[in-house]
Design goal:
The chain has a single domain (about 5-50, about 65-205), classed as Rossmann fold. The protein contains six helices and 13 strands. The protein has helices at about 10-20, 25-45, 85-90, 140-150, 165-175, 200-205, and strands at about 5, 50-55, 60-70, 70-80, 95-105, 110-120, 125-130, 135, 155-160, 160-165, 180, 190, 195. The structure holds uracil.
Length: about 210
């Protein structure tokens, strides 16, 4: 199965993303914009959730009305920048469980190494929404998806803020079943693995560490 790339071209998201790209944008503004965009992306990534009709009573009448049905959702954030997307996405998914995965790049092998992993139980019955702002080489997302699949998870969607063509290719070569939701696909990666034109280091801009 080949999953799709969903390009989210909503004008509000595009406007906010442009503000985030600007190098003058402050840490506090960057953080607020990422939260706002993540809320809007949460709306887009849940567009195909199944619903079922339930019987309710309004103040005037009884009716059958739709409610979200199907798999329970878990939002998994890739540390550390993924954390900046959690508050926004959870605003539209208040009942979602939350998981975390931490990976660092081994300086000699350049392979991602896991240093933290905590997700809820019964992952095989859940819809996973994996969040990380930057899909660059794709190495860490490929590793994160592989690790999440080891828990038995069968349905994983990946949501980011910016993607490089190289990262999309890599993720879909290894995990063709994982759809990608992104507001933008930039030109390329530079020699340091940064997305160009991009927005710089998302973690540093989010946490003010540079
Ligand atoms: N991670 C980032 O934070 N920025 C990039 O451009 C690439 C990876």
């Amino acid at each position: 199965m080949t999953a799709r790339v969903h390009l989210i071209e909503h004008p509000l998201i595009q406007h906010k993303l442009t503000l985030m790209r600007c190098k003058e944008t402050s840490t506090s503004k960057f953080r607020a914009l990422l939260e706002e965009i993540s809320l809007l992306l949460g709306y887009e990534v849940t567009r195909d959730l199944p619903t079922e009709l339930v019987d309710i009573e309004t103040p005037l009448a009884t009716m059958r009305a739709p409610m979200v049905a199907g798999k329970k959702i878990v939002v998994v954030s890739v540390l550390r920048a993924g954390g900046g997307m959690l508050d926004g996405i959870v605003k539209v998914l208040p009942a979602a469980r939350i998981g975390h995965i931490g990976l660092y790049r081994d300086p000699t092998t350049l392979e991602p190494v896991e240093y933290y992993f905590k997700v809820p139980q019964q992952m095989d019955t859940r819809q996973v929404i994996l969040v990380d702002p930057m899909l660059a080489t794709g190495n860490s997302i490929v590793a994160a998806v592989s690790r999440i699949k080891q828990t038995g998870a069968k349905s994983i969607k990946f949501v980011c803020l910016l993607a490089a063509p190289e990262g999309i290719r890599h993720l879909h070569e290894v995990h063709p079943d994982v759809p990608i939701y992104t507001p933008a696909i930039d030109e390329r990666l530079n020699d340091h693995g940064y997305i160009v034109p991009g927005l710089g280091d998302a973690g540093d801009r989010l946490f003010g560490t540079k």
